[in-house]
Each structure stands twice: as structure tokens, then as C-alpha cells.
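TA notes, week 10

Several of you asked for a full example with nothing omitted. So below is the full record: C-alpha cells for the whole chain, then the designed sequence directly under it. When grading your own attempts, check the secondary structure regions first.
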């Protein structure tokens, strides 16, 4: 069964005390009847403490923002899946558009990261999305299909069930162009269809697909009302407890 998930990607923001205060505020503001899975994705310095704060709370989990494709060894500055799992973190974000763009991560790199994450019992939030040029050139459907298939379609059905997809319309983030809920739904439906072609309808209909565009309290309810949108991977709005909780309450 598909889960409704709202994940907050802090990116490279918040000092130690700021991050802990944010988590504490969100926990205190969440409604007692919350049915949405909430995921905090802080930077590495916060992971151990934030996870400890969330460990025994229902429907609240933690993700790392990145992971090494290597298992262990002389890779200065890298953090392995084994290390992340050793502090009981549940999720790893893999393939975020910023990692693809700034750090030149390829589909093959991400395939290796997916494999090492699953080998260490981490569930994966896998990001995909197209640029403005790709959308204007009308190659975005093929681009998205290649991102998903080249990094994920080697997985068994059982392993694929541990994947959450996050669609990022890169063309609508910081460009002044706004993605409508109908445009987001069109892509989410397409992603679900290509998963169904590979793994069948039953599996495809039970995979959560999150929207990773500019989701705010003002548009979250409209976005989350669409049939194929199961939540959001939230950036800037997740850095404020009130706005993040308003988005969570939009289901």
C-alpha cells in the first residue's frame, strides 16, 4: 500500500542547535492524529542526534542526503551506507538534481549507490527530473525514463518495493516558471506507467512517488490531491517548522 510521505531536505543549512530546535518544534506541532510519514533529511552532522530524537516516534523517520557508492576504504570525506545504517537511519536520498549537476553523478553512479544502500537495509528516496531545456525540446519523457530505468530497473521486484521516487521539475525550481499540479500529475502518472511496464501494475500502484518541486503551504493541498502524487520532498519550506507542518497537514 502506498504511503503518504513528506520529507524535508535541509540541504547545507542549519547549525547543530538550529537543526535540533527545528525537529523539536515540528514534533510538537504535528497533530496527534497525523497519518503522514514524516522524514527529516539533515546534513551528516545532525543525523545521529536527530535520529535519536525520532527513534520511538510513530511515522517519523530520518534520511541522509547522500551516500558513497563505495562500501568502505580510503575515500576521504565520504560516508558509507554501512556507517549510516549503524546509527539506525532508515532512508538515503540518492540522485538529487544538485548532486547530478554539481557533482556530476551519472545514472551508473546512482545505480551503485542504490545497490549499496539496499545491501545495508536502507530504503531509497530516488530523485529524477528534467531541466527547462529538456522540457522545451520535448525530450523530458525519454530523459526521465532513462534516469529511472538505468539506475533502478536492474532491481528485483522485492528490492524495487524499497524504492520511493521523488520527481524534481528542475525547470520550475528557481527559474520563475511555475509547475502546475496538472503538469506534476502528468509526470507522476508517466513514471508509474513505466514502472508498471517493467514490474506490473500491482507493484507500480504501491510505489510512493513524491513531488520535489517548489511545494509550499499555499500549493501543497492542490498538489497532494492528485491521484499519482503521494507526498513531497520539500526544500526551503522544510526549514521552518510552521510551514513544514502546514504542508504535512495538507493531506
Amino acid at each position: 500500500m502506498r504511503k503518504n510521505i513528506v520529507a524535508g531536505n535541509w540541504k547545507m543549512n542549519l547549525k547543530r542547535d538550529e537543526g535540533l530546535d527545528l525537529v523539536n518544534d515540528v514534533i510538537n506541532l504535528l497533530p496527534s492524529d497525523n497519518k503522514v510519514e514524516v522524514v527529516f533529511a539533515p546534513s551528516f552532522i545532525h543525523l545521529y542526534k536527530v535520529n535519536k530524537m525520532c527513534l520511538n516516534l510513530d511515522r517519523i523517520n530520518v534520511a541522509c542526503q547522500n551516500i558513497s557508492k563505495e562500501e568502505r576504504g580510503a575515500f576521504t570525506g565520504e560516508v558509507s551506507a554501512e556507517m549510516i545504517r549503524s546509527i539506525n537511519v532508515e532512508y538515503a536520498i540518492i540522485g538529487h538534481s544538485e548532486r547530478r549537476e554539481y557533482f556530476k553523478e551519472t545514472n551508473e553512479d546512482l545505480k551503485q549507490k542504490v545497490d549499496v544502500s539496499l545491501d545495508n537495509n536502507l530504503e531509497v528516496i530516488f530523485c529524477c527530473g528534467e531541466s527547462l531545456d529538456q522540457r522545451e525540446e520535448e525530450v523530458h519523457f525519454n530523459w526521465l525514463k532513462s534516469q529511472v530505468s538505468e539506475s533502478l530497473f536492474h532491481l528485483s521486484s522485492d528490492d524495487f518495493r524499497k524504492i520511493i521516487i521523488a520527481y524534481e521539475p528542475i525547470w520550475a525550481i528557481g527559474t520563475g516558471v511555475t509547475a502546475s499540479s496538472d503538469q506534476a500529475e502528468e509526470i507522476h502518472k508517466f513514471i508509474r506507467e513505466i514502472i508498471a511496464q517493467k514490474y506490473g501494475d500491482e507493484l507500480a500502484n504501491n510505489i510512493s512517488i513524491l513531488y520535489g518541486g517548489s511545494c509550499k503551504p499555499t500549493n501543497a493541498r492542490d498538489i497532494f490531491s492528485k491521484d499519482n502524487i503521494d507526498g513531497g520532498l520539500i526544500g526551503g519550506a522544510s526549514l521552518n517548522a510552521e510551514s513544514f507542518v502546514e504542508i504535512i497537514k495538507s493531506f
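The chain has a mean pLDDT of 95. Use that as a sanity check on your answer.
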